[in-house]
Design goal:
It is a single chain. With 190 residues, the chain is α+β, with helices and mostly antiparallel strands. It folds into two domains: 80 residues, Alpha-Beta Complex (Outer Surface Protein A, domain 3), CATH 3.90.930.12; 103 residues, Ribosomal protein L6 (Outer Surface Protein A, domain 3). It is elongated, with a radius of gyration of 21 Å.
Amino acid sequence: MSRQPYVSEVVEVPSNVKVEVVGSRVSVKGPLGALERDFGNVPVIIRLDGNTVVVESHFAGRREKALVGTIAGHIRNMITGVTRGWRYKLKIVYSHFPISVKVQGNQLVIENFLGRRSKITLEIPKGIKVSTTKDDIVVEGIDKELVSQFAANIELATTLRGEERISPHGREGGPGVLDGIYVYAFENIK
């Protein structure tokens, strides 16, 4: 395994965004809000150089080189979040029992999934805005990780497991149940 003496990646900072780096903690402030993240558990050096953020590692192997790119990607997503925001769209799919989805306070409530009487309730994290229409759910926010994780949690809440997956014809998988809520798009708000 050969180690390179130095690996770095540069992240450009737009003029309407303010970035602060204190040790391994990165704070990003922009028109839509502020995000903060601590990368203390990663063996990379993060520093501010004018209007760029430099992520670097000395004597880097494959793992460290990959980590430099990953951390730079996280910082880019933070900058995009505070300037343009993130939006995930989910489609409500059903064949026999119409699924009802509504926002009640800080909870997302899914009713009548596969005709069940019990409700599926998900807590909406702070900083996320959820809106529903007849067949769509829209999840928006500035923190990509939070928005994407909540969208995935909605999809997982209606994923069939074990014996639920067996079709009416007794076969697993097959032409069985497609009912559920599925992520079909993600984009920037602005």
